[in-house]
Amino acid sequence: MSDVTVTSFKRGLPGAAWWLPLGTAAVFLALWHMLVRLSGSDLFPTPVEVAKGIIELIQKGLLLKYVVASLFRVSWGFVLAVLVGVPLGLTLGWFRAAFQSMNPIIQILRPISPIAWIPVAILWFGVKDSAPIFLIFLASVFPITVSSMAAVQNMQSVYLRAAQNFGLKGPQLFRRVIFPAALPQIITGIRIALGVAWLVVVAAEMIAVNSGLGYLIIDARNAGKRYDLVVAGMVMIGLIGLGLDVLVRRLEKFDEVRWGYGQR
Amino acid sequence: MDNAEPLINIRDVWMSFPGKTADAPVHVLERVDLTVSKGEFVCIVGPSGCGKSTLLNIVGGFLKESKGDVRVEGQPVDGPDPARIFVFQENGVFPWLTVAENVGFGLLSRPAKERDERVAHYIQMVGLTGFEKSYPRELSGGMRQRVEIARALAAEARVLYLDEPFGALDFLTRLKMRSDLIRIWQAEGKTILFVTHDIEEAVQLADRVLVMSKRPATIQEEVIVDLPRPRDLDSPGYLAARDRIFSIMGMDVHGGGAGDPK
């Protein structure tokens, strides 16, 4: 399998996987720096000022505190969404009557942006952690539910028939065949949901609470137009988002689910 | 063969599926009669889409016949049964389990020791020793079919239903799989009902070949292949049986010609 990847990259130079992205990043930073200088803006920061801003946040102990606060909210909302979404999706995928009765509601609720729920969340939960947690839950529960549902519905019927042939039914059938057969697609849904959850926590923190990376951005702008800290917050959001994605992608490497992702 | 109670007994089976319109159902099987004795190896051949897989799915309990009587081991078939394992053309090996876990799939209620022994025994029988911890995605198509056959044998299935199990394999692998299947069948004494569209395959494998007609299909003719195994593919007996089936099916395709009219 890996041979295929090697051949398609054979025209690349050794080490290209490292110096190509690093070189691009360097060009990007240099352009950024030049454009800020050329525009003469004294509000928008240069990359160096952003780096200094990050250092300042670290020294004040704010960075760690805000990152932890954001991750805390994402974890709660996200774990709740997994606990609700996976069983719900599997049930809807398996029982036709459940699908028929619930799917229309889900399809109507699903396209409503979690941002639109912010006023409702504040009404119900006040300006507390529970409001953004609720929003993150809402944002991630739909992709998880829908992907779990589709995973069961699209399951290859041969697995089901083989399982029935061996006399499996009820919980055994679910645990030994339906769930493992659906797992690769469930994990894909989880990955999408985590990305969305991370987008939403930042938005929610701008309005509903007074800590976290989203709060940092709004606060830095409101209290003295500190755009170096605004962009520092954005950079951190990007880096942590990348980290979360890398983490979930690791799940896809397990032998129990690798079969479900085709050749990579 | 005649005096023993047949293990599989299919009497006057009809099968229709709903068609494009409610008043025009698709008739797939018509008046199918067939028996298989204990320990017998029977192949069903027929043109593509004639309904031979449908028939096997009915015997296997995955489909309910529209009309007729289907009995296996004296009991009416009412759904799939662990004593009679189906081997699927599209391969029903579970990709999330290792080879050993797949082969032991039907044995979870057994004590661990007995399970391990049986798993090791049947993995060896199908020639996959050394691949116990491999996952199906790491195996070739032929090896995956071996896993599925071992899984059926390990579960102590008395009857194997094989639905074009070697159809997706390359020519040499198919030849090897056939001779291995014969070896396993001779060692284990299972009853095998094997569906294929490959006439050569049927004559190489079976005690008896049942030739199905075009849709709506019925058993058109029975060809007894009374040749010693391993079969000599150049012997007059083999060639005669093969040509007999070709002419039965050929007559059907060309709408007359050689062979007896039905």
What does this structure look like?
The complex is a heterodimer of chains A (264) and B (262). Chain A is 78% helix and 0% strand. Chain A is an all-alpha fold and 264 residues long. The longest helix of chain A has 36 residues, at 170-205. Chain A is globular. With 262 residues, chain B is an alpha/beta fold. Chain B is 33% helix and 23% strand. Chain B has seven helices and ten strands. The two termini of chain B are 25 Å apart. Classes of the chains: A mainly alpha (264), B alpha/beta (262). Chain A binds chain B through residues 156, 158-159, 161-162, 164-167, 177, 180-181, 183, 255-260, and chain B through 60, 62, 79-82, 84-86, 88, 90-92, 94-98, 105-106, 135-137, 155.
Average pLDDT reading of chain B = 90
The coarse overall form of chain B would be: globular
Binned strand content of chain A: under 5%
> What ranges of chain B have pLDDT less than 50 throughout 5 or more consecutive residues?
252-262
> What gyration radius of chain A follows from the Cα positions, in whole Å?
23 Å
Helical/strand content category of chain A = mainly alpha
Instruction: Please give the share of residues in helix of chain B.
Output: 25-40%
Q: What structural class should be given to the helix and strand makeup of chain B?
A: alpha/beta
The SSE order of chain B reads EEEHEEEHHHEHEHEEH
End-to-end separation of chain B in angstroms reads: 25 Å
Helix content of chain A: over 70%
Number of helices of chain B: 7
**Approximate strand percentage of chain B:** 15-25%
Distance between the termini of chain A: 7 Å
**Biggest interface pair, residues each?**
A-B, 19 and 24 residues
- How are the strands ordered across the major sheet of chain B? 6-7-8-3-9-10
